[in-house]
Amino acid sequence: MNLPISIANEIIAAYPQDSCPPNAIPQTLGCNPAQASSGALYKTAAAYYGDTVFIANRRLTCQTWASNNIPAYCYRFNALPNGQTIANGVRHFVEVAFVFDSVLGLGYNPNPFASRPPSYAALAKFMSDSWVSFVVDQDPNSFRAAAPVYVNSSLGNVSIPSWPRYDNAMPLDFVFDANSTSYVEPDTYRKAGIDLINSLSVLYRR
Questions:
Q1: Using CA atoms, how far apart are residues 82 and 187, in angstroms rounded to an integer?
Q2: Same domain, yes or no, for 103 and 178?
């Protein structure tokens, strides 16, 4: 996409050359720079590209639904399945096996859960329960009615917070994680860049 120079400069300012998450991704690399073969700006470019294609759209959708009093529950998936590389990070679609609790890996090659700790299977069960609850009751937390304090026993009976409804006054999303307990985070990471992208919907043909 050819952006006007003035806007391109704004994008560059909103996505500084920072090697640390969440300004640069994948988070699986931590603050380590990308491999030399990927280029010095790989992680910064990955953040910008991911925002233009997925994250900015997702955040704007959550904001729009919430502003119209439509219940919205937004999330970020942060578990690296088997077969995915640390350099590529947690990519689009890899959470689907978890949503369908497909721990046997049917239809996958390799099995996303192979050689992963029990916390990955526990995360799949939790995500599947959440999705079914939302489909049935429009609330991903409704399955907790019998046991409001949900725990992940594979992590030592660690309690998992409820998935909050999106609120523009205090935007939060839910992070599904298998390396630690799943948690709630402010949906404000890379705010300057994402706000800029969403203000340019015409240029991004959305």
A1: 27
A2: yes
Examine the domain organization and report whether 135 and 171 are in the same domain.
yes
Cα 145 to Cα 30, 131, 164: the distances in Å are 37, 15, 15
Encoding tokens for residue 94?
A: 């890899």
Q: Identify whether residues 18 and 42 lie together within a single domain.
A: yes
Q: What does the block give as tokens for 63?
A: 């904001």
Question: Average pLDDT of 106-114?
Answer: 96
Q: What is the pTM of this model?
A: 0.93
User: In terms of residue numbers, what domain contains 40?
Assistant: 1-72+190-206
Per DSSP, the three-state class of 125 is helix
Residue among 193, 194, 163 at smallest CA distance from 75: 163
Pairing state of beta strands 172-177 and 75-78? parallel
Tokens of 76: 């970020």
